Amino acid sequence: MPTFALPPLADLLASACVVQLPMKQRFRGITSREILLFEGPAGWAEWSPFLEYEDAEAAVWLAAAIEYSQTEYRAVTDGGTLRRSSVAVNATLPAVSAENVAAALEPFGRFETVKIKVAEAGQTMQDDLDRIFAVVRHYPDAKIRLDANGGYSVDQAVAMANAMVEAGVRLDYFEQPVKTIAELAEVRIKANRVGVRVAADESVRKVSDPLAVALAGAADLLVIKAAPLGGVGRASEIVAEAGLPAVVSSALESSVGISMGVHLAASLPEPIFDSGLATVALFEKDVTAEPLVAKDGRLPVRRVTPDANRLVELAASPERTAWWLARLERCYALL
Which of 10, 33, 159, 232 gives the lowest tally of CB atoms within 10 Å of its CB? Predict the structure, then answer.
């Protein structure tokens, strides 16, 4: 799997720290995020596959983290891959009630694009519409992205696309409206008829062949995440092979993990979309005193070093730490 020399497991364990980051509100069904950090020759990296992921999938995230910890990234002018020194980012809105929209988006500061979570379990399409229209009222100039995480049926997704057009919502694209690639292709045909673009996320990072979406003509663009695709290098290759525009997004990481995504976004050729990498704003606390929080809608391309005191403050329990270290050993054995 890796295209680099694996460091000894002992080297990873020597610097490994497991922390738990509290969130400002429930997001993706969780209220806190557990992550493991370790230091390599080029700097710190984050390994944070979600708790429910099997070892084979989590091992891909580990390969990405190891690659990042060992790689020095340079500008194109210096023989490297970095094409820009900062990247534009969107705000991300969890599935909050309409009356809480302004408060939930306030931590993001200035932005030109907002991604709205829809199709949350236990909510209705009317809840989604109320949230969307509240964003439009508060931020009339913002471009809107919808992210359903595969939660809609084909009929619901098409109905939502039509509702956006009929309401005059400035929709940038509709992300992963349905689960399967076949469903995505069907929705894309119908959504394109009314001028709505469809983006693939889970259908790229949670299938055995990440290029299957492009081959099936199931999306207008790809939403990619560095860690689930095996790292900056492999994710860049997938974008090039797919031949579709790409948006780099977060996997809900700390600033250390976000820094890897920022390096990926800075490496992609034009056209470059606003990236979904401003999600540190969703956390109550971060592992560094200088978090990667957007300023004027942009994030700088830089590495992040955790603060020793914060690693102590945010440390996971001994039981959770032992769980992560055992998981690290199992996944390392798969590389």
Answer: 10
* C-alpha–C-alpha distance, residues 248 and 262, integer Å: 8
Per the CB < 8 A criterion, the answer to whether 153 and 178 are in contact is: yes
Residue 192 gets the label, from left (phi > 0), alpha (psi -120 to 50) or beta, of: alpha
pLDDT at residue 62, rounded to an integer: 98
9-73+309-332 under CATH 3.40.47.10, yes or no: no
- Rounded (to 5) percent helix, strand, coil in the chain: 40, 20, 40
pLDDT for the residue numbered 272: 78
Residue 288 phi, psi (nearest 5):
-130, 155
Contact indicator for 220, 197 with CB cutoff of 8 Å: yes
Strands 43-47 and 30-40: antiparallel
- Cis before 291 (ω within 30): no
Residue 313 structure tokens: 């403050």
Domain limits, the chain: 9-73+309-332, 76-305
Mean pLDDT of 35-54: 97
Does an H or E element contain 113, and which? strand 113-117
Q: Would the CA dihedral through 72, 78, 81, 85 be positive or negative? A: positive
- Active-site residues, by number, are 117, 225
The answer to whether 201 and 147 are in contact (CB under 8 A) is yes
DSSP 3-state assignment of 223? strand
Question: Which pLDDT band holds residue 2 (cuts at 50, 70, 90)?
Answer: low
Q: Output the furthest CA–CA distance in the chain (Å, rounded).
A: 58
pLDDT digits (tens, 9 = 90+) for 17-36: 999 999 998 887 789 999 99
Tens digit of pLDDT for each residue in 79-94? Answer: 999 999 999 999 999 9
CA-wise closest residue to 225 among 193, 256, 257: 257
Mean pLDDT of the chain: 95
The topology (CATH level 3) of 76-305 is: TIM Barrel (3.20.20)
Report the alpha-carbon distance of residue 205 to residue 328 in Å, rounded.
Answer: 21
Kindly state the DSSP code that residue 41 receives in the 8-state scheme.
T
Predicted TM-score (pTM) of this structure: 0.92
